[in-house]
Design goal:
Shape: globular
Largest sheet: 9 strands, mixed
Distance between the termini: 85 Å
Strand order of the largest sheet: 3-2-1-6-7-9-8-10-13
Number of strands: 18
Strand content: 5-15%
Radius of gyration: 36 Å
Helix content: 40-55%
Number of helices: 28
Length: about 850
């Protein structure tokens, strides 16, 4: 069974996080990622004699398993990793974490148990990496990055800077132009590479072999970067560690800085001690010459100038910096002016707040392009600060946000309130004085919803507010006249339909129906093309290429469609990709179109497997039921409805007779046993009373006893009804369970004869396209709901003009005075 991406990521994280205890996650990551590395290279070495990493005798994950529960487990793991490091020139890379550190891992049994459990997580059969890797899609490398993201999230403000959010890395990778590079072997460099995620994302964009260089001051983080490179098949990457890039850059050529085709960076924001070990006024690399020296306690421009100096004359790069670099004055203002005058800055992308793990402040991406500087007319600015989603205590760029930023920037598209090319003449004029603060040039504020005083006083809906809905009237030109009628007062209108009929009027309008039908055709065309493509998928396919192809096609299909934002449509597809579709494609990439059911085994507290039924990942049982067992499904639904009706009747009966003197009030618990016991007691009391009636000649006593018997019979009838209903419910439950079990057997048996054609239809037609179509249809509903909401809002806002409101207040005041008068009070 192939590894499902989502399960691989979440299971490793959940297990490791549970074992972390009091250890700081920024430290604990070194232990977890080292074990993940050893497990992966050990598995690969067993099936590939030419594996990148040599696993020596006594240096494998299998040797770690043999240490479980043993007293010397910590020292033993250190020795195993040491042998692996020695054999592959990885000393100081994979052996950074000390697995025998009692201060971090506990003493005695605590350490033994913790390390034993940690090994067990990676010993899970589901994490067998010997064959679970789709060509071109690095499952384990992505899992490694996933873990680093979570460790960064948990590490807190001061220790989460080793990781650049993947979404931001992807934006940078796409805007620096590495994909279009004409160089046979382009070079790329990150002077503050952290765990290497930004470098790897940039390299992923290129289809060529890229020479990778990175420098990281923190030794442990540099080790993570090197492991990350190896896990992403970039073992030749040069990662320098242990030195500050600014005071001691490690990549030189002839006593000068080595220059690169591309440079990317996410340096520490506003570093106060950036000049330690460096005399900026006598910098041997001339990084500040012609620009000026950055402030002593703020190193943002020091890193940016290092990047500029590290680029070839045709080089391109991008750097993440805090927004302050765009407008701060003093020495930074002078440096900014010099950069603008040299025309090195191609563009600036303003990002949302709280994206990064080391800080919550807003940041921007400054894109540098030396090659085309002379011909540049201005700086292209993008205000992407409002496009994001909440993810725990951080914000994240969505797929649609990433794509929109990249599309707009690379195509230099000017979008109202979002992007524009700002001429150098405007930037340098007296008003702006080389200030690059994005809000100076792009007004991203939403238009204020202005209240109309005249309408509040005299009623009516302002025509200006109706005209503001012009984008809807362009598509539904006659709908406006069906919703509104002109008032006698000029410039005001009123609703033709009741407020609760607005939505129905829109949904049933012929123009809405026509537009919806046209959008259905757009989806049907996309569906037809991509259903064919998806059904042709074979073993070895690259899932990321497939989702790229079909997602780009959906963007193209919905481009320039009125009322619908193509990026919203795109997000629906990408959401489903992350939720389910990518797991399916990775399964197909390894196993092909196979629908193989398996038992769900869960270990209990005693460590024994408990059977929780069965399932099938690629073709869930519900798909087989819907396609082949509709009759049985409907029969079960009918049985379920009948049982629910009985349950509701029982609950109503108990509720009706559960008061203080109700028939069920005497029972501690209302269930079959207690009610049967109560019925027997009542029947005995009834017989006893009837006997007394027969034996007692006094008429007076007879009448009272007869009443008692009648009351007893009434109570018995209610309780027997309860018993009859519970019996019927129990019988219904048995019949229902038998039907479910019978269907379960039939469905399981139906998997074996499934043909590949049937499996493809179940997965592509029923599973993937069914969900995608349903999700995209919600966009049409959203369009209608947005229009309905706005019209209702306007109608309610001006529904009660001031004269009418004053009249009603006066009427209510008179009523209050009358009531007070009757109570003996006088309102003055």
């Amino acid at each position: 069974m192939a590894i499902k991406k989502s399960e691989l990521y979440s299971s490793i994280w959940a297990g490791c996080d549970a074992l972390r205890g009091g250890m700081d996650p920024s430290t604990y990551k070194d232990y977890v990622l080292a074990l993940l590395f050893v497990k992966y290279v050990s598995d690969k070495a067993t099936v590939d004699p030419n594996a990148l990493i040599e696993v020596p005798r006594g240096g494998s994950f299998k040797d770690m398993v043999a240490l479980k529960g043993k007293k010397e487990i910590g020292d033993g793991i250190n020795k195993i990793i040491g042998k692996l490091a020695q054999a592959n020139d990885l000393k100081g890379v994979i052996d950074v974490a000390d697995f025998n550190d009692e201060d971090k891992l506990g003493k005695g049994k605590e350490m033994i148990d913790r390390l034993t459990d940690l090994i067990s997580i990676f010993e899970n059969p589901a994490l067998d990496f010997r064959k679970n890797r789709a060509s071109g899609d690095d499952i384990l490398g992505d899992a490694y990055e996933y873990l680093m993201m979570h460790f960064a999230t948990e590490s807190g403000k001061s220790k989460g800077q080793f990781y650049t959010p993947a979404e931001v890395s992807r934006v940078i990778a796409c805007v620096i132009g590495i994909k279009e590079s004409s160089k046979r072997t382009p070079t790329i460099y990150d002077p503050t590479c952290g765990s290497g995620s930004l470098l790897l994302k940039a390299v992923d964009e290129s289809e060529k072999k890229v020479s990778i260089y990175g420098q990281e001051k923190d030794v442990a983080t540099a080790a993570l970067a090197k492991m990350n490179m190896i896990l992403h098949n970039q073992d030749m990457a040069e990662i320098a560690r242990g030195q500050s890039t600014l005071s001691n850059p490690q990549f030189e050529e002839k006593d000068d800085l080595k220059t690169f085709d591309f440079v990317v960076a996410n340096p520490p924001f506003s570093l106060a001690n950036w000049s330690n070990g460096l005399n900026p006024s006598d910098d041997q690399y001339n990084r500040f010459s012609g620009y000026g020296i950055p402030p002593e306690k703020n190193g943002d421009y020091a890193f940016l100038l290092h990047i500029v100096r590290s680029l070839k004359s045709t080089g391109k790069g991008a750097c993440i910096l805090p927004h302050g670099v765009l407008f701060r004055g003093g020495a930074e203002g002078q440096i900014r002016k010099s950069l603008i005058e040299k025309k090195y800055i191609k563009g600036i992308i303003g990002l949302p707040t709280n994206l990064f793990y080391g800080t919550g402040i807003p940041a921007c991406i400054i894109v540098i392009d030396k090659e085309n500087a002379d011909a540049r007319k201005g700086i292209f600015m993008v205000d992407a600060s409002k496009g994001f989603m909440k993810d725990g205590n951080k914000n994240r760029l969505r797929e649609q946000d990433i794509h929109k930023i990249v599309d707009v920037f690379n195509k230099q598209l000017e979008v109202l309130k979002y992007s524009r090319l700002v001429k150098f003449s405007e930037i340098s004029d007296e008003k702006n004085d080389y200030n690059l603060n994005i809000p100076r040039y792009i007004d991203g504020q939403e238009a204020e919803d202005i209240q109309d005083i005249d309408a509040h006083l005299n009623g009516g809906i302002p025509d200006a507010d109706i005209v503001a809905l012009e984008k809807y009237w362009k598509v539904y030109p006659t709908l406006k006249n069906d919703l509104f009628t002109k008032s006698k007062r000029p410039n005001y209108s009123s609703l033709k339909v009741a407020a609760d009929k607005i939505n129905a009027t829109i949904f049933n309008h012929k123009e809405f129906v026509t537009f919806s039908a046209a959008m259905n055709i757009v989806f049907a065309d996309w569906k037809k093309r991509n259903t064919k493509l998806l059904k042709e998928i074979k073993v070895g396919v690259k899932p990321k290429q497939i989702i790229f192809q079909i997602s780009e096609d959906i963007l193209k299909s919905y481009t320039s469609k009125e009322l619908l934002d193509k990026y919203d449509i795109y997000q629906h597809l990408m959401n489903y990709w992350h939720e389910a579709m990518q797991d399916d494609l990775y399964l197909i990439a390894v196993d092909g179109w196979k629908a193989e059911p398996y038992r769900i085994l869960v270990k209990n507290k005693q460590g024994k497997d408990v059977d929780k039924g069965w399932t099938c990942d690629l073709v869930p049982p519900r798909l087989v039921i819907d396609r082949f067992f509709e009759k049985e499904k409907k029969a079960i639904e009918t049985l379920e409805a009948e049982r629910e009706a009985l349950t509701a009747e029982i609950e109503a009966l108990v509720e009706e007779h559960s008061g203080e003197e109700g028939y069920f009030s005497a029972l501690d618990k209302v269930n079959k046993a207690s009610v049967q016991k109560r019925v027997k007691e009542l029947e005995k009391a009834e017989v006893k009373t009837e006997y007394k009636i027969a034996a007692e000649p006094k008429i007076k006593y007879k009448a009272k006893a007869v009443a008692e018997v009648e009351e007893l019979e009434s109570e018995i009838d209610v309780l027997r009804k309860y018993l009859d209903l519970t019996e019927a419910e129990s019988e219904g439950k048995t019949i229902l369970n038998d039907a479910i079990a019978d269907l379960d057997r039939k469905v399981l048996a139906r998997y074996k004869p499934l043909t590949e054609v049937e499996i493809k239809s179940l997965v592509v037609d029923d599973k993937w396209m069914g969900v995608i179509e349903k999700n995209i249809r919600t966009e049409m509903e959203r369009v209608s709901q947005a229009l309905t909401h706005r019209i209702k809002e306007l109608a309610e806002r001006y529904e009660m003009p001031l004269p009418k409101l004053s009249y009603e207040v006066g009427e209510m005041e008179l009523k209050v005075k009358e009531h007070l008068k009757k109570m003996g009070f006088v309102w003055k």
